[in-house]
Amino acid sequence: xxxxxxxxxxxxxxxxxxxxxxxxxxxxxxxxxxxxxxxxxxxxxxxxxxxxxxxxxxxxxxxxxxxxxxxxxxxxxxxxxxxxxxxxxxxxxxxxxxxxxxxxxxxxxxxxxxxxxxxxxxxxxxxxxxxxxxxxxxxxxxxxxxxxxxxxxxxxxxxxxxxxxxxxxxxxxxxxxxxxxxxxxxxxxxxxxxxxxxxxxxxxxxxxxxxxxxxxxxxxxxxxxxxxxxxxxxxxxxxxxxxxxxxxxxxxxxxxxxxxxxxxxxxxxxxxxxxxxxxxxxxxxxxxxxxxxxxxxxxxxxxxxxxxxxxxxxxxxxxxxxxxxxxxxxxxxxxxxxxxxxxxxxxxxxxxxxxxxxxxxxxxxxxxxxxxxxxxxxxxxxxxxxxxxxxxxxxxxxxxxxxxxxxxxxxxxxxxxxxxxxxxxxxxxxxxxxxxxxxxxxxxxxxxxxxxxxxxxxxxxxxxxxxxxxxxxxxxxxxxxxxxxxxxxxxxxxxxxxxxxxxxxxxxxxxxxxxxxxxxxxxxxxxxxxxxxxxxxxxxxxx
Length: 543
Prior knowledge:
By secondary structure, the protein is α/β, with parallel strands linked by helices. The chain contains 19 helices and 18 strands. Helix content is about 40%, strand content about 15%. It is elongated, with a radius of gyration of 29 Å.
């Protein structure tokens, strides 16, 4: 990675995958909520045939979204392309449902069924330099205008769906000596040429190739001195264009037609900033131009005042949807077992709240004002301050015990309370001294490890008669105790795994591998008083 990449603020990730997604519509809400929680912006298209997207944000946030997508087995091998910039590429986040992730409009054309041969960027030059290969640029005319491969044919189309008619009528694709030519096709990121090669195969072409990863992958990997690319590559975001190394180019965008400004456009009498360019001036009415002038005026006012005009109403509306008025506020610390048990209960009960991740070394004044004892978790709800983790668990289950965690109606309820009380007192006392002996002026914590093991052997015995501590079903008791057992085990995992506790080990392993655990261990940025509200859970409840 170059120094420029390290210095940049925004990571842009482009990705797509053709894959059968029969539930694509149901995926939209969770994906939008996740992106909003991470302040990632851009556009994601979902269709039955797959996913297509370009998103941007901090590297950590973008990679969190990618990790979420790849957690689905259908998208586990999702590939993406990265580039960096010091300017926000997008102002909004949209997740849209489409009939196709790239519109060709021809029934039966599916890259999941039939597609051309992939050619790596490193091998592309050799292929397109062959005299018997017809090289076709599958992009729109305004994209081709600012850059393309040397010798490429421009079909001169305004939309991708027009490619079908061009293929049927192009003389360059006619048979010679009873044989169709070899065809190489390319596009920006690879998605359009996957569909176009599927189309070519349907039309009887046999030797069909396409550039794997598209132009962006070529510009990323192939150095300028070896390149057959001429000009810059148009991209559908605020960068407008990129060159070799995916560095932002010099082109500007017309805010009316959303196409790159032609050479000399700004000197034309048909150009008006934010209103029109020589390419689109004749295509809009006076009413539309006046509306664009007002939009440009408001944008300039916002710029002078240093406020964000674009996307602000939409963002506020979405935050209000995720976190309406009177939403509970949870002060939390990711690794704290008390805070972990509270988050588990809120998740299981389907309670959404605003989460404020704190730094133990710099606790926020708002938390200390609500709870002077200064420990997490703290839940603020309708004027009520809950500052004990078990109180938060009880409150959450009283709102909605959808997971059926309660034990009040069971004969074992008194036993459940005793088991958790032993965890929070005797076991926690020994856990702290085993894990942090120096805090207590101890040479080591071995003696307290042995005392803690007494409790663990008791849990092992209980688990011999059921999958969980109160029987076959996971309850609030398991959720209250598991974070502390995990902390004890992680102090010396090798020693823990060597103990004769097979049932306890299996119970802990199921907990650590569960989607609930992964959800409550999601990493949030440390909250500060000017921070934008962030929802917990980051995605809607998994129950």
